[in-house]
Amino acid sequence: MLFFYFLGVYGDCLEIRTSEFDELIVNDKVIKSSELVGFDNVKISHPGTSIFKFIKTKKKTFKLVDITRYIDKKYERNIRIDYEVKYKDWLRGQEKLTCILTLLALSFLFFFKNIFGVFKV
Question: Are residues 76 and 23 in the same domain?
Answer without folding.
Answer: yes
